[in-house]
């Protein structure tokens, strides 16, 4: 349990002792000193949650301490106490950043309230900073899993556009991670300290979408009982992510186009202009060009949105990433369910790699989570997988890829088969390359070369 640390600075020893005891009875850790010089020495060694200082001290004054603390540690709250209060001094103290200015003899209950208020403010600031660090960590580019060539191209494009303010259109099927990419771009951009606001244009009825986007004023329509800011207003200074933009009604498309051109908008029912400073990232799982041809999407808006396109591949188009993603989601699921680490054997992993994954990465994540929740074993086998994924494995045969009407990448497919067989051989050979090479009827040096070329982890 964290016990907040308070530094008390008062040259009156008796009053300092009394106040220290009262604060310690409330569960605070208190250090006290009689001079500003001693206070500066303590501040060099210890981080304090709150400083309570007499204004008039011999030598360095409470005001000097306040000003230096606000330079060295802006988040630390300072309360000043004085026996010679004046309105002018109080104003000066508040302008310099004091949380409060209390006159002697002071009411201890008031001081307790201000101490609690200051410490709660510090807790919220610290918590907010922690959450921001978590967000920055979670949405770093290297936390989007992928070693396949298709994903490397995505990473290159993301790195190039993150530092710009260019409008981005993310194209990809459901479950490919469009919002994850949008967040990663935002949290690696100059706008990272400002809001990331997302809205799914396909999940909100058309008659409510305008109000959700632009906000409304009280009385603008039935049910508008109070003013409400929209997503554009909430995202000001940051990034607005419009998911499933292809589902936006035509009448709203025109309004969106005007907003992007003029960088201002009005709430529904209002004529007051609101200036706009956002980065717009939109996404769709539909072919916008086909929607333009059919008259269901404005061509001028399409070109306004499609400044920098980012295409996300289907999971079956990046099979080399399935093993990495499976292990990543296994680790996450085990941690969230407070389970010991679970592994997956070669046959089950091959079944995962051979499956078509119509739901893409989202489906893979759900399958892993469900499997971890339902299995009691420390090793996932084919028997633990859903029937549609495990069927070829349980039948004892090898699931062979087929040539679809769209064609097939033969070199990539052969590399995937080769990778799967090497994984199995290493598993059976307990990671010893010489044994694996014997099982595959090749030389050990040939196996080592293939492992390097195919970037296979020896697990």
TrEMBL record:
<dbReference type="InterPro" id="IPR025944">
    <property type="entry name" value="Sigma_54_int_dom_CS"/>
</dbReference>
<dbReference type="Pfam" id="PF25601">
    <property type="entry name" value="AAA_lid_14"/>
</dbReference>
<keyword id="KW-0067">ATP-binding</keyword>
<dbReference type="InterPro" id="IPR027417">
    <property type="entry name" value="P-loop_NTPase"/>
</dbReference>
<protein>
    <submittedName>
        <fullName>Sigma-54-dependent Fis family transcriptional regulator</fullName>
    </submittedName>
</protein>
<feature type="domain" description="Sigma-54 factor interaction">
    <location>
        <begin position="144"/>
        <end position="373"/>
    </location>
</feature>
<dbReference type="Pfam" id="PF00072">
    <property type="entry name" value="Response_reg"/>
</dbReference>
<dbReference type="InterPro" id="IPR011006">
    <property type="entry name" value="CheY-like_superfamily"/>
</dbReference>
<dbReference type="InterPro" id="IPR003593">
    <property type="entry name" value="AAA+_ATPase"/>
</dbReference>
<dbReference type="InterPro" id="IPR009057">
    <property type="entry name" value="Homeodomain-like_sf"/>
</dbReference>
<dbReference type="GO" id="GO:0005524">
    <property type="term" value="F:ATP binding"/>
</dbReference>
<feature type="domain" description="Response regulatory">
    <location>
        <begin position="5"/>
        <end position="119"/>
    </location>
</feature>
<dbReference type="InterPro" id="IPR002197">
    <property type="entry name" value="HTH_Fis"/>
</dbReference>
<dbReference type="GO" id="GO:0000160">
    <property type="term" value="P:phosphorelay signal transduction system"/>
</dbReference>
<dbReference type="InterPro" id="IPR001789">
    <property type="entry name" value="Sig_transdc_resp-reg_receiver"/>
</dbReference>
<keyword id="KW-0238">DNA-binding</keyword>
<feature type="modified residue" description="4-aspartylphosphate">
    <location>
        <position position="54"/>
    </location>
</feature>
<keyword id="KW-0805">Transcription regulation</keyword>
<keyword id="KW-0547">Nucleotide-binding</keyword>
<dbReference type="InterPro" id="IPR025943">
    <property type="entry name" value="Sigma_54_int_dom_ATP-bd_2"/>
</dbReference>
<dbReference type="Pfam" id="PF00158">
    <property type="entry name" value="Sigma54_activat"/>
</dbReference>
<keyword id="KW-0597">Phosphoprotein</keyword>
<dbReference type="InterPro" id="IPR058031">
    <property type="entry name" value="AAA_lid_NorR"/>
</dbReference>
<dbReference type="GO" id="GO:0006355">
    <property type="term" value="P:regulation of DNA-templated transcription"/>
</dbReference>
<dbReference type="InterPro" id="IPR002078">
    <property type="entry name" value="Sigma_54_int"/>
</dbReference>
<dbReference type="Pfam" id="PF02954">
    <property type="entry name" value="HTH_8"/>
</dbReference>
<keyword id="KW-0804">Transcription</keyword>
<dbReference type="GO" id="GO:0043565">
    <property type="term" value="F:sequence-specific DNA binding"/>
</dbReference>
């Amino acid at each position: 349990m964290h016990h907040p640390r308070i530094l008390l600075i008062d040259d009156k020893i008796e009053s300092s002792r009394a106040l220290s005891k009262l604060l310690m009875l409330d569960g605070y850790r208190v250090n006290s000193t009689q001079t500003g010089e001693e206070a500066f020495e303590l501040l060099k060694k210890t981080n304090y949650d709150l400083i309570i200082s007499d204004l008039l001290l011999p030598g360095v004054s409470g005001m000097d301490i306040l000003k230096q603390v606000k330079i060295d540690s802006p988040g630390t709250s300072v309360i000043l106490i004085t026996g010679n209060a004046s309105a002018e001094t109080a104003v000066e103290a508040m302008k310099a950043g004091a949380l409060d200015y209390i006159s002697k003899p002071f009411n201890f209950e008031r001081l307790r309230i201000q101490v609690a208020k200051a410490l709660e403010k510090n807790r919220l600031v610290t918590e907010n900073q922690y959450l921001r660090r978590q967000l920055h960590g979670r949405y770093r580019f290297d936390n989007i899993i992928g070693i396949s060539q298709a994903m490397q191209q995505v990473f290159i494009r993301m790195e190039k556009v993150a530092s710009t303010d260019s409008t981005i259109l993310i194209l990809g099927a459901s479950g490919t991670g469009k919002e994850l990419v949008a967040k990663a771009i935002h949290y690696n951009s100059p706008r990272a300290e400002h809001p990331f606001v997302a809205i799914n244009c396909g999940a909100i009825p058309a008659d409510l979408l305008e109000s959700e986007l632009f906000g409304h004023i009280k009385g603008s329509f039935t049910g508008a009982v109070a003013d409400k800011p929209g997503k554009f207003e909430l995202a000001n200074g940051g990034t607005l992510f419009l998911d499933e933009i292809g589902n936006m009604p035509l009448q709203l498309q025109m309004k969106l186009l005007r907003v992007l051109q003029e960088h201002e908008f009005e709430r529904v029912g209002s004529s007051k202009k609101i200036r706009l400073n956002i980065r717009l990232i939109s996404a769709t799982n539909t072919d916008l060009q086909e929607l333009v041809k059919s008259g269901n999407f404005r061509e001028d808006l399409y070109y306004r949105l499609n400044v920098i396109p980012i295409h996300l591949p289907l999971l079956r188009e990046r099979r080399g990433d399935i093993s990495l993603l499976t292990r990543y989601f296994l680790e996450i699921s085990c941690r969230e369910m407070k389970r010991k680490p679970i592994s997956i054997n070669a046959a089950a992993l091959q079944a995962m790699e051979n499956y078509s994954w119509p739901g893409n990465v989202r489906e893979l994540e759900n399958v892993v989570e469900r499997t971890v929740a339902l299995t009691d074993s420390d090793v996932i086998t084919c028997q633990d997988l859903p029937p549609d994924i495990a069927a070829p494995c349980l039948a004892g045969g090898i699931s062979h890829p087929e040539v679809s009407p769209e064609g097939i990448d033969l070199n990539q497919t052969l590399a995937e088969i080769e990778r799967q067989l090497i994984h199995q051989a290493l598993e059976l050979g307990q990671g010893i390359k010489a044994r694996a090479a014997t099982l595959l009827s090749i030389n050990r040096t040939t196996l080592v070369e293939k492992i390097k070329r195919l970037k296979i982890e020896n697990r």
